[in-house]
Amino acid sequence: MPTHNLEIEALDWSTEFLPWFQEAWKPGQHVALIAPTGAGKTTFAAGLLGLRKYVLALDAKGGDSTLDAMNFVRIEKWPGTKSMTKKVEDNEKNQLPSRFVVGNKARSDDEINQLAATLEKTLTDTYEMGGWTVYADELMLLTDHRLFGLRKQVDRLLIAARDLGVSFVSSFQAPKWVTPMAGNQATWIAVSYTRDVDVVNRLAEILGRPKNEIRGAIKGLEQYSWLIIGRNPREPIRVTIPDYVEPKKDRK
Questions:
Q1: What is the pLDDT of residues 221-241, one digit of tens each?
Q2: In which element (H, E) is residue 89 found?
Q3: Mean pLDDT of 183-201
């Protein structure tokens, strides 16, 4: 039996990876980002979302500063499909993209209840409208029944909204923490360095690739670098590092 040679293609983030992915990522295809805390999931996601014209980033944390850094327009309370259609039409006239962060800052019980209602209505109306790219950072917050309990609405988008051109981008730390549909329905999976054996095994199962292939590719990752793996096992695995800006030090 011939030996399988793992092909890994290194791509520069700005000049090679993003242009390639913009062409490869079709409407209705979902993306799963899997990485531990501090690996740069939101930074990676911001680059992907910038490739799309119609974006809804769901703020399940109720005031996520990393989402604010994307400089999307914040919608604190979902206005409904008619108002959103009008917002998009106005942006089209001004040749602007329609990229929004959805959700109010939530600290009190009343604010948390408002946020829950906003997120649920957004997911429901997104299915009806179609065409949007939806981003859910730390997907467990949306789907866990102890938190917002919106797994049914999320699964509906993941399973049934492909023909409507809805793409769902989700980030999470481990596949076992979220709905299985996040991995099973993903066309593209991006993963950073991890030692979690369960994550490696689950990725191999989802993608239909040998465990040692996935394990070896992850083991060779540098800090903040990512593997991008598609469903086609004949395609190479891509690796890239997003552009990072060092935070400015406070002057004393």
A1: 988 899 999 998 888 999 999
A2: helix 81-93
A3: 92
Q: Helix or strand or coil: residue 101?
A: strand
CA angle 176, 179, 180 (to 5 degrees): 70
Q: Where are the domains of the chain?
A: 8-240
Nearest to 22 by CA among 163, 170, 167: 167
Total count of residues recorded for the chain:
252
DSSP 117-163: HHHHHHHHHHHHH---EEEESSTHHHH-TTTT--HHHHHHHHHH-GG
Is the distance from CB of 155 to CB of 3 less than 8 angstroms? no
So what's the architecture of 8-240 in CATH? Answer: 3-Layer(aba) Sandwich (3.40)
Q: Which of 233, 246, 237, 190 is nearest to 217 (CA)?
A: 237
206 within 8 A of 199, measured Cβ to Cβ: no
Strands ordered across the beta sheet of 98-102: 8-10, 237-240, 226-230, 186-191, 30-34, 167-172, 133-136, 54-58, 98-102, 73-75
CB 101 within 8 A of CB 57: yes
> Which residue has 């051109």 as its token pair?
165
Q: Over 80: is that where the pLDDT of 244 sits? A: no
